User: Fold this.
Amino acid sequence: MQAYDEIVSIVPRGSGELVTGAAKEAGAFGGTILMGRGTASNSILQILGFGDSAKDIVLIVSEKEKSDAIRDAIVFASKDKKRPFGVLFRLETCSFYKSGNSEQAGNAEDGAEADGSKEENMNGNNTHKLLTVIVNRGYADDAMDAARKAGAGGGTIINARGTAREGDATFFGMEIVPEKDMILIVAENSKVKGIMDAIKNLPCLSKPGSGVAFASPAADFTVLGKPKN
Assistant:
């Protein structure tokens, strides 16, 4: 069964095409570019109003055997950019379906999850985790401030919306509010618990159904751009 990875890059707005172009040259199907905003970790920048910066979030699904080549191509395409130009990391996909193809692919061989071998494979170069936080619109900065105080260097905020209709049952226990903010935070493994605890204790999340947060292993974490001399 064919295995796939999702390669995620977060770069300045307008640079998504550089990433997808390099990825396609290395054999990727293509990519999807989302628009978000970054949050600076420097409190002085925040006070001066320069704390937020427009970002492109690039999602590329590739066959596992091509992942290293695609990653290397993106790193090479970014080598002359001033660091930190952005970040790149890899997420394993548990299944993948391409329209027009009746077959569905998965990463794990039969029995792999039962004996923990899949998790072991991810942990070989997994020094970071991706924290995904979904809150009602307007509370992203509160969540990001709490995360930063707990050790997060920064994050990327994406505006989103719910898909349920008024009067529908709640989705995953969340209250149906159309406007959402999704926050992506890449953090070192040792800081994940503290960040999650800080987010869980926010007053704006004290009401049941007001938000969700989860963490996923992020392999091959790389800072893009030319290293400082």
